[in-house]
Amino acid sequence: MTEASNTPRERPVSPHLVTGGLGSPLLWRWHITMWTSILHRATGVALYVGALIAAAWAISLAEGPDAYAGFKGLLGSVPGKVVMFGLTVCIFYHLANGIRHLVWDTGHGLDVKSANASAVVVFAFAAAASLAIWGIAGMTGAL
Amino acid sequence: MVSYRTPLGRARGLGSAKHGASHWVAERVSSIALVPLVIWAVYGVLRLAAGDYGFAVHWVQDPLNATLLVLTLAISFWHMQSGMRVVVEDYIHKALTKSALLLLNLFVCGLAGALAIFSILKVALGGA
Question: By the CB < 8 Å criterion, does B76 face chain A?
Fold first, then answer.
């Protein structure tokens, strides 16, 4: 503290994420509630694509057996499975964090300690539920 | 009821048009509806992934499945349209680009949602 007293203190800055354009150092230390907020939006955008895949499923079913087999072949391929696993994680994350937001809307759980704890719960749920569903898929012959 | 608006605010005609909260509320209502629907849909995908075309047609023709599918699709497409709308409104500030993306978002969701729901109804009502 004695050395610092000789140099002028840095001026306070108003809250913003980055010090200058993209790629510049972060002004804020990453914390878990930032991640949950950013990921809620990111998974929402990913699920947008997921819903379009669901629409393609319905359309292929209405088209007939050949289109449906083609669609299933595409989703059953390795890249298809990677996409489906990613969407599984996105669904369970967005679901759990969405419920977290609904609880917040009632005015509960907004203090830092509760928000940090619920963030951990959301991540744990997304991971556990995704693995469980893929485990069940493996056992029921869905893979 | 007491009005807290200033005379200038009233004269400008800006501010609440009496339904300012409707988008916010509708987003919450759709998300509450989607909690059980999405859990059911994940179960449905598990069943469908293990079955073939014949099973899928049979599954969709069940009235409960057809109804829940249509509800899940309709509410999901509405929910994602309103979510993407907020993303565009947050990040895109050029008026023309913003309007174009908002229209594109609405039309993509409307078209994909309508196609998906029509397809489900076609299968459910025995057209497939």
Answer: yes
ipTM score assigned to the predicted complex: 0.86
Most B-contacting residue of A37, A39, A43, A48 (CB-CB within 10 A), to test interface: A48
For residues A8 and B51, what is the distance between their CA atoms, to the nearest angstrom? 71
| CB-CB neighbors (< 8 A) of A51 in chain B | 73, 76-77, 80, 112
Comparing C-alpha atoms, which of B63, B108, B115 is closest to residue A58? B115
Alpha-carbon distance B5 to B117, whole Å?
45
Question: With 90 as the cut, is the pLDDT of residue A9 above it?
Answer: no
Could you report the per-residue pLDDT of B25-81, keeping only the tens digit for each?
A: 999 999 999 999 999 999 999 999 999 999 999 999 999 999 999 999 999 999 999
pTM to 2 decimal places: 0.86
Tokens of B44: 């449905």
Q: Does B29 touch chain A (CB under 8 A)?
A: no
Q: Is the pLDDT of residue B16 over 80?
A: no
Interchain contact, A99 vs B35, CB within 8 Å: yes
What token pair was written down for A98? 């969405």
Q: Which CATH architecture has domain B24-124?
A: Up-down Bundle (1.20)
Domains in chain B: boundaries? 24-124
